[in-house]
Amino acid sequence: ELQMCVFADSLVTVSHTGRELGEFAITIQLKQYCQEDCFLVYANSHGMIDDIPCGTSIMAYISMKLETLEQHHHEYVKANKRTRLTSIKFTTYSHSIICTKTLASLQEKKKQSFSFEWSSLEGFVSEAANLLILRVLARRGAVPENMVFLSFDTETRIATSTYKELGQWSQTIGNEMVEMYGIERTVQSEHDDEVPTTWQCAFLCDGHMATRVQVGSPITMKMLQLPVPVEPELLFFFNIIYTVEEAAAKPTFEKKSLNWEEDLQLYSRYLDRKEELKANHATYIRHHPELKALLSDFLQFLLLRKPHDIPTFAAEYFAPFASQSPPGPSFRS
């Protein structure tokens, strides 16, 4: 059933007035992680909420038993020309899950690490694994009673994740009337100060997501065009490598201008590189204390003379230090 869920979804984000605000996409592929067959789940959404650019991306490796081997979760909000980035990475080991949470902006960067023992996470389902579960339930057209897993809340604390059936109905997509199957998922934190978060999703019979809305949110994600029905043909090579033969041609997407500040991975790499350069420069300055003395002498001399042509003054000041220049008197001017 999981292998039948290997396909891509593409939705648009619209306001209650029908205005398009952004995009939402989910892609699930068959991959390998540390020589283990698994699913690569990638979900990305970006757009505007109350005229504020924001976005979320999830990239994870999920085992055939729905265990999360590794997950990267990024969120950004750009308000008042300032971007705030939240990055959460957790990796599964034999006895625990190690989490690293980073809160970053152009002004500061905070990082904290913590872990959860497997004994406290029996029945844990990550956000990426949840996307696989929803597709399976949609293809079945049924949600088991009392379906409860463990999950993380918005503060990366243990919470319960419950699923509920919303029934079936007909809806028009494009020019066609299609059958929908609804599923509601609620994440309830164990802390009383955390408000439950609920999503309501509608699916086609083959598992494609047609609509998605977070209860209380002013935006809705919905499908504008019906996808080509694809039933993947699974081919087994030595019972190890799985490949998928798609019946439809790959869709073409127009090129879009890249804004690196809104791209979660590029912005995260920028902040990491910035911290790396700052640390490297600080180490160099500590190892060469003569640099501060040299610059201090130059600035003092500059402020005493106050020349109009600073580049020429600097060139004459530092000329005696050049190894290839002919010897001459210092401070000729």
UniProtKB/TrEMBL annotation:
Domain of life of the source: Eukaryota
Record keyword Cell membrane present: yes
Biological process annotations from GO: actin filament polymerization; cilium organization
KW Nucleus (keyword) present: yes
Pfam families, per the entry: CATIP_N
Residue ranges of every copy of the Ciliogenesis-associated TTC17-interacting protein N-terminal domain listed in the record: 1-218
Cellular compartments annotated: Cell membrane; Cytoplasm, Cytoskeleton; Nucleus
InterPro entries cross-referenced by the UniProt entry: CATIP_N, DD_CATIP
One GO CC annotation: plasma membrane
Keywords in alphabetical order: Cell membrane, Cilium biogenesis/degradation, Cytoplasm, Cytoskeleton, Membrane, Nucleus
Record's function text: Plays a role in primary ciliogenesis by modulating actin polymerization.
UniProt similarity note: Belongs to the CATIP family.
Protein name as it appears in the record: Ciliogenesis-associated TTC17-interacting protein
